[in-house]
Amino acid sequence: MTLSRPLALLALGLQSGMVLAEDAKEPAQLAPITVTSSTKTETPIDRLTSSTEVITETQITRMGAVTLRDIFQNSPGVFTNPGRGEMSIRGMGSQGTLLLIDGRRVAADSGMKYELDRLPAASIERIEIVKGPMGALYGSDALGGIVNIITKRPTEGIEGSVATSAGANPQGEGARWQFDGDVRGKTGATGFSAYLSAIKTRPYTEARRTQTLVPKGAQGGPVAPSRSDLGLRPNNTTCLRTSPQCAAGSIPIGQRIPDSYPIDVTYREPSEVVTLGGTVFHDFTPALELAADAMLMHERRDGNYISPSQQTQYLKPDGQGRVPVFAVPIHQSMDNDRIDLALRARWQATDTLKFNWRSYASRYDKTEAIDVPGWREYGYASQASAAPLNGTGKVHILSHDLNALWTPNAAHALLFGAEHREEKRTAPFFNPQGIVEERQYDVSAFYIQDQWTLSEAMNAVAALRQEKASNSDRHTSANVGLQYTFHPAARLRVNYAQGYRTPGIHELFINRITPQGLMLGSDVVNPAVGKTAYALKPETSDNFEIGLGGSASRWHYDLAAFHNEVRDRIGAVAVTSAGASYRTYRNIARARIQGLELRGGYRLSAALKLSAAATLLDAKDTTSGKRLEFTPRQLYALELEWKPRPALRLNVAVQHTGDQYYVSTATPGALRPATAGGYTLVNLRANWQPAALRNTELFAGIDNLFDATVDPILGSTVGIYGFVGIRHYF
Question: Could you tell me the fold of the domain covering 5-212+260-729?
Answer without folding.
Answer: Maltoporin; Chain A (2.40.170)
